[in-house]
From TrEMBL:
This is Hydroxyethylthiazole kinase. It is an enzyme of class 2 (transferase). Its cofactor is Mg(2+). Pathway: Cofactor biosynthesis; thiamine diphosphate biosynthesis; 4-methyl-5-(2-phosphoethyl)-thiazole from 5-(2-hydroxyethyl)-4-methylthiazole: step 1/1. It comes from Hafnia psychrotolerans. HAMAP family: Thz_kinase. The lineage of its organism: Bacteria, Pseudomonadati, Pseudomonadota, Gammaproteobacteria, Enterobacterales. SUPFAM superfamilies: Ribokinase-like.
Length: 264
């Protein structure tokens, strides 16, 4: 029997963020070509340390040094897949957590088969929009390219199934983010629809999830904390801006300035 989603505590998120700022986890990002710079800036603003090391040999070496690895298949190519395989295997051997962002999985064969291969390699967390989580779990989805055509709550059963199948914490994001380990589920509200009008907020969230899974403590709550930090900064930024152009700098400022009071 599945336990109903529970509203996530802002107090835990505030403590986890403080812990992250104190330790500045080194996050190895194998992400897509569209969001490299935005992802690095989001990690820096939050208080983590990004590095994009992409050559297969170097990626395997660096995965053992970094505190966590992000794998994002947004602009997957065959050489990139080789680097991801090498890095994931090295991270697993070194006991470092890694996170999968299954961008646009479903309709496209290369990335879908590759992600199905990757989820057998014990990701610590999987973060995707509703259509991606539905498709990755084998259920039918209405994604349109990288954008979701499904509602996050409708993908919660798929997220639970995927978590049970893989042992990963699964975060399915949208108007509300749901974070589950199969049975237990945390609901993270906040954010703003404007966040979907800027490229890479989800991709950057997956990088922040990687930073938070490097922290000690309850992994389910750490992933929810990452979601809360992004939703909270996004919501504040939207209150201060009129559209996508000014959202980006306001979002980075709010991530950097985020305090206990805002998160709670
Ligand atoms: N309708 C909404 N209302 C509030 N927040 C939202 C809404 N839709 C998305 N978000 C927030 O936007 C962020 C990105 O989530 P989303 O599900 O859009 O990821 P995504 O589709 O993978 O994005 P991308 O591929 O562009 O990086 C999350 O923090 C999420 O909570
Ligand atoms: C727009 C886009 N195309 C491939 S990856 C990406 C970034 C958002 O997921
Ligand atoms: Mg995405």
């Amino acid at each position: 029997m599945n336990i109903q989603p529970v509203d996530f505590s802002g107090v835990y998120a505030a403590n986890a963020l403080q812990n992250l700022r104190n330790t500045a986890p080194l996050v190895h990002c194998l992400t897509n070509d569209v969001v490299q710079s935005f992802t690095a800036n989001v990690l820096l603003a939050v208080g983590a340390s990004p590095a994009m090391v992409v050559d297969p040999t170097e990626a395997a070496q660096f995965a053992t040094i970094a505190d966590a690895l992000l794998v994002n298949v947004g602009t997957l190519t065959l050489p990139h897949a080789d680097a991801i395989r090498a890095a994931v295997q090295a991270a697993n051997r070194a006991g470092k957590p890694w996170v999968l962002d299954p961008v646009a999985v479903g309709g496209l064969t290369l990335r879908t088969e590759f992600c199905l291969e990757l989820i057998k390699l014990r990701p610590a967390a999987i973060r995707g929009n509703a259509s991606e989580i539905l498709a990755l779990s084998g259920m039918s989805a209405s994604g349109r390219g990288v954008d979701s055509g499904d509602n996050a709550l409708s993908a919660l059963p798929a997220a639970r199934l995927l978590a049970k199948q893989t042992g990963a914490i699964v975060a399915v994001t949208g108007d509300v983010d749901y974070v589950t380990e199969g049975e237990r589920c945390l609901a993270v509200s906040g954010g703003d629809a404007l966040m979907t009008r800027v490229v890479g907020t989800g991709c950057a969230l997956s990088a922040v999830v990687a930073a938070f899974v490097a922290l000690p403590g309850d992994r389910l709550e750490n992933v929810a904390a990452a979601c809360r930090v992004m939703s909270c900064a996004g919501e504040l930024a939207c209150q201060q801006t009129r559209g996508p152009g000014s959202f980006i700098p306001a979002f980075l400022d709010n991530l950097y300035l985020l305090d206990q009071e805002a998160l709670a």
